[in-house]
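Usage example:
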Amino acid sequence: MIHVEHLTKTYGSTRAVDDLSFAVRPGIVTGFLGPNGAGKSTTMRMILGLDRPTSGRATVNGKVLADHPAPLTQIGSLLEAKAIHPKRSARNHLRALAATTGIGARRVDEVLEIVGLAEVADRVAGGFSLGMGQRLGIASALLGDPETVMLDEPVNGLDPEGILWIRNLLKDLAAEGRTVLVSSHLMSEMALTAEQFVIIGRGRLIVDVSAAQLAAMSSGERVFVRTPSGPLLRQVLAADGVEVTNSSDVADGYEVTGLDSDSIGRRAAEAGLVLFELTPTTDTLESTFMELTQDSVQYHATSATHSNRPATTPTNTTGKAA
Amino acid sequence: MSVALTTPPPTTAPAAVAVTDERRVTQRSVVVAEWIKFRSVRSNVIALASAGVVLVLFGTLFSSLAGSGEALPPNATAGTDSLSMSFGGMNLSQLVLGVLGAVFVAGEYTTGMIRTMFAAVAGRVSILRGKAVVLGVSSWIVMTIASVAVFFAGQAVYAGDGATYALTDPGVLRAVLGGGVYGAGIVLMGLALGFVLRSTAAAIGTLVATLMIAPGLVGLLPDSVSESIGKYLPSNAGQAFLAVERSDTLLSSSAGFAVFAAWAIGLMAAAVIVLRRRDA
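Running the assembly step on the lines above writes:
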């Protein structure tokens, strides 16, 4: 378990993390999302006790991490890829880290096996690719067999095979009943792995929702229509709850919400309206994420004093079909 | 690999591993971790060994060169007595040791390893102590051995008339053993600078400036000023207890030792303060 309680971190006049509260539950993968600079890494560093909170606190399994006699067995973390001396072998790196907590050489061999580095374990880490460095970082996170695992952007620099591997590893760790918190600025990646989403922007919580709740926040179904006679299209489709907007990408394109593609096609045929294209599209979690974070940036830019917004309310889901 | 050191015999059941491992952070376990880090990077070991080798080779060379020229009086002032010839390599040795200490710490800030360590060992000062024990003790041992070796080598090749010392002569044993203490002190200063400055370049630069450049700069000041300031610099304070004979330009051996120790302790204290206060 990770509990973040009213966590705030200011650097000078900048609030990197602003009254942030959320809990990360065991048994599922929780995605920690936000645009670059949203405060994800700062939050993780405070959870690990690397940065001191300006106010509030973060606990791991009920205690501030420093109060645990063996932090490695409570939370395993990956903050920086290749945080290792370039002339030290992977095995010696892990042995040294394990030794801090009295973890034996056998566990080092085990985690090397788990992350697939057993064969290169005695090579110096300077020659490792970024992907191998990430695997080594994950090996060190698993050393203490911790109840909680926290990884900052673990898929960075990984090849497709490595990404798949991480995805499965995270799900396996969660299935074993561990608490798994993974940060990313890419919703597309997290959508495949996470069951819970903590989304922050400008250091503040935007939403803390399950995957289903997040999907329900999307603007719903949209139909892309291309026609040479836009005014006629608007006239034909005009009804309550139907919205036609000009596409920003295509000159003769229109986005229609509130009506499905069958109805649009039928009405167009009845009116003798020429259509070049008729494509139903569904909002992805990614576009919902973009909308949420985009909104937060604007929101905070205009009214920075309003701090107590309910966490689970979607902020501005436009044009939702009735 | 030295698996046998930490792994129980393979006859024990695999499940026993988690039980036999004593999984908690102690000062001892942190020292062990730092020792593994130290010995697993070859350049660390090479640097430490070369600090000792340089001391012996240069000391022997200086002694033989000095001995072949005009004989120096045994009771010459500090810096010119025969033991000072033997310690002629210390200028280079101290640089190697100081850089070793600085890089051992600042390098971890560069890679990010130090933050991995801080997350594993919440007590940051115990990491500083662990590094200090590993580097301090190992450099003390190496430099003590090298100092004793260069004393005998230097005295053996030194050809000055009646200029040789015996270990039992007053102040000689103190000066010879001082070589190990001086080496350990310098390595600790480098280490502390690494924690305070967190950058390899800055730490090495400050170290070189303090040990090598400051004495020269102070010499440019008016004599009255340079004489009163110069002897308190760490290298000159060290010189005071590395020499057998008393010199007017240096502190007494005990005062020199006190000042040198104050430099090391002061820098370590500064490192402790920044470790406790700063974000990692």
